[in-house]
Each structure stands twice: as C-alpha cells, then as structure tokens.
Amino acid sequence: MVEATRRPPSVDTILGMPAMAGIHDLFGRRLVKEGVRDIVRRHSDIDWATGKGPALVEAFCRTRMESGPHRVFNLTGTVLHTNLGRAPLAAPAIEAMMRAASGPSALEYDLTSGRRGNRGGDVALRLQRLTGAEAALVVNNNAAAVMLLLNTLALRRQVPVSRGELVEIGGAFRMPAIMARAGARLVEVGTTNRTHLADYEEALGPGTGLLLKVHTSNYVIQGFASAVEEAELVRLARAHGVPFAVDLGSGALVDFSRWGLPREPVVAEVVAHGADLVTFSGDKLLGGPQAGIVVGRADLVRRMAANPMMRAMRPDKMTLAALDATLALYEDPDSLPRTLPALCLLTRSAADITREARDLESDLACALTPAFTVEVVPLESQIGSGAQPVTTLASAGFAICPADPGRGSDRRLRRLAAAFRHLPRPVIGSLRSRVLFLDLRCLDDRDAFRAGLRDLELP
Ligand SMILES: *Cc1c(COP(=O)(O)O)cnc(C)c1O
C-alpha cells in the first residue's frame, strides 16, 4: 500500500503508543507531551514505531531535566580557567559546602551569647593567622573587594595609580572604570613603562584618599621598564598620612616556588612590608571558592565592613564554609600538593602527563581515523587567572589534524572541536594554527574520557 502523503500521527496517538510507556514513567506526561510536540515539529517524517521517535523524545526530556552548568573536561591547557570555573575545590571544602547548604548553621549567630554574631568571623581569624594581618574581611569576589576598598577609603578623593598598572582583567573589569563607579578619582602616575617615586610624590596632595598598587596580573612590561618598590610606597604613604593598598589579584598564601612553580607575591610578605590593606581572590592560586579577601589594618577593615555596600557584597554560607575548609588545608602547607586540587594540577610533571597521553593515544586514534591524525606532543600549560602570564608549565597532550589537509580542512577541524564540545561530558580543547590541541594536565577522569570517545561523531 502506498500512502499519498505521509502525515505524522497525532500527538495523542503517539502518547498512547506502547513504546512511549517507559518514557512516561520516567518523566511524567506533561514533559513527554512537550517533547513529542517538539520532535513532531522538527522531524515530520520520523518513524515512531521503531524507536527513533521515542528515543528523541527521551533525549529531549533528559536535556530538560538536567541542571547546569555542564561538567566538562578542561583540556585547554589553562589550569585556573575563569570561563570554566577556576579552581577545583578540595574534598573537605565540598563537604563543608554540603553541610552548610543542607541545614541551619550558626552563620551569623553567637552561640555563647545567643545573639547575632559576626558572619565570617572564624574565616577572618584563620586569614589573620595565615597572613599576619590584624584583620580580614571576605566578600563575593576580588572585584568587589577592590570596589569596597575604593568606595570606603577614597570616595570623592584621589587615588594615584601607575600608568603601567591600569589593568583590564577581562570582561568589564578595568581599573579606571571600577575607580569611577566606586566614586574615587583616578590620578594617573608616570608612564606605561616607567614610573618613579618622584611621580608618586608629585601626585600626592591634600585630596589623596589612598595610594594603590595593582598587580599586573595578565601582562608584563619588559625592556626599558621600572616600577617603584612596595617598601618605598609604604614610606611615602606614611609620610603623607594616607593608607597604602595593594590589589594582588591572584596572590598566594604560601610561596609556590618551593614546588617548582613561578613565584607569585605572597600575601604575608606584602603585609610584612607594611601594606595597610591587601586584596586578592579566593578561587585563583588560593584554590578555594569564588571570594574576595581583604586583609590588613583593623581600623581600615572595620570601616570597610561598616560600608553599607558591604551588604550587597557579603558572601553566602556555602562560600564561607568552603573557604574556611580550604584555608584549613594551609595549616599544613607541606601537604598542599596532595590536599589542594589546584596545586595537584599545577605540579603534575610533564612525564606523568605524557604517560597518560600514551595510554589514551590508541583509543583517540581509533575514534578519529581515518578523517584525522593524532599525535602525542609536548605542550605548555598556563596557570591562568592572571598568575604569571608569560611563564608556562611543561605539559603534554594530543595534536589533532585533518588527515587530508586540502580544501575545507579548517572547517572540518572546527567541526571536530564542536563535536568534542557536544559530547555528553564536553571536551574543551584549544584550536591554534590549524591544530586542535588537547592538553591532558587537567584530565581528571581518564576512564570517563575514554568512554566518552564512543559518542564522538566525526564531521
Ligand atoms: C583577578 C583580578 C581581579 C578580580 O578578581 P575576581 O576574583 O575575578 O573578581 C582584580 N584585580 C586583579 C589585579 C586581578 O588579577
């Protein structure tokens, strides 16, 4: 029998088909009905009897029930990748978050007096111990810490900053714009490549609210360049009776160079040099949750805490719990390469990563042939998040190229990168000079990666 026109069965007919019963049980009638409508609209000639249609409806429902953000494999080579969530948390930090999330806690309640307590008080004490500072305050992120600092200490007042330090962190964080929105007046000092003490001296006056040094997180100025030492800025600020603050950006609580990593400024050292306030991030080198941390002079931290803007920037209970648990790991610094996941990743040896690549090579080659070639190659990872932008860590991974480098090969490679991104657990690599690189430094589940390759659809 030949049908003149193949009209799809009605939605109600489809819903009544035996093949749909299991899907009903899993997802409920309402969502399944929506799924059927969607699939019928997009695939008018689909076969509902043999399972292709029901399978698509099931996929529709699963996608709808899934909650984001998607877990991915970060094979970009950038360890603290801002777009991929920066530092992975340590197990005790995850447990602490779950405890805080699942029931009431004495978050802002003093158990001794039975009255309202100080949110983040325990975390502050720990930060004081770890940095040698008199006081500490936690906010939502370092951008908030800088905003609060400027708005509290330099509202309608001048803030001299070296022209070499007017950073853009990415997104909308540009130091001059933040200054303006915080109500402070930026006074540009010196030149892009060279700033001298005399330049700062000239800029300081009765209208100065704060002297600020900003860590040039994501760039370096090399060649004919000079900046003023922190110790000299401390002396200058004291002589003029203005506070001296340092925005460290990433900052580190311990000197990571002892584990062969490039040296980043250590918060305790900047405090010891005499900085009145230091701001840094919780989820960069510290390896904790997104947070902004201010440490320094008690009187200044008190003023910041009393700023009404603080209420708009205060961290939630999960953040404080995770931060406290992460900081607890720093009480035993020798174990950090084992206990702090971010440091585990940063200190992985190239030899170890190469071994992992060799182990996976044949599986990947199998999934990619004959359209693409794959090779194990040495790579250079980056720390990321504005720590040491020009220093790299020896790493290893895969270089993937189209087997036929003729016309359209660029497009095929871009499509392959997209196919990796569309795997059930997406794989994010980096496309550079007509090669798709997968840096294995941050591969956290080899078996899941291997299993995922089965779903890769070659373009
Ligand atoms: C990263 C960074 C910031 C912003 O920190 P977030 O935690 O991303 O808000 C501010 N200043 C500097 C120098 C930075 O490197």
State the main characteristics:
459 residues, alpha/beta, Aspartate Aminotransferase, domain 1, 3 domains, 5-stranded mixed β-sheet, binds pyridoxal-5'-phosphate
Describe this structure in words.
The protein is α/β, with parallel strands linked by helices and 459 residues long. It has 3 domains: 11-65; 73-83 and 345-455, Aspartate Aminotransferase, domain 1; 91-339, Aspartate Aminotransferase, domain 2. Helix content is 39%, strand content 17%. It contains 19 helices and 17 strands. It has helices at 11-15, 21-27, 29-42, 52-65, 91-101, 121-131, 142-153, 175-182, 197-203, 230-240, 267-272, 298-306, 310-313, 317-329, 336-339, 341-346, 350-368, 409-421, 446-452; strands at residues 73-74, 109-110, 115-116, 135-139, 158-162, 168-170, 173-174, 185-189, 211-214, 244-249, 277-281, 292-296, 372-381, 393-402, 427-428, 430-432, 435-439. A 5-stranded mixed beta sheet has the order 4-12-11-10-9, with helices on both faces. Strands 13-14-17-16 form a 4-stranded antiparallel beta sheet. The longest helix is centred in the C-terminal third of the chain and has 19 residues, at 350-368. It is globular and about 85 Å long. It binds pyridoxal-5'-phosphate (PLP). Pyridoxal-5'-phosphate (PLP) binds at residues 141-143, 146, 167, 169, 173, 214-215, 217, 247, 249-250, 281, 292, 386.
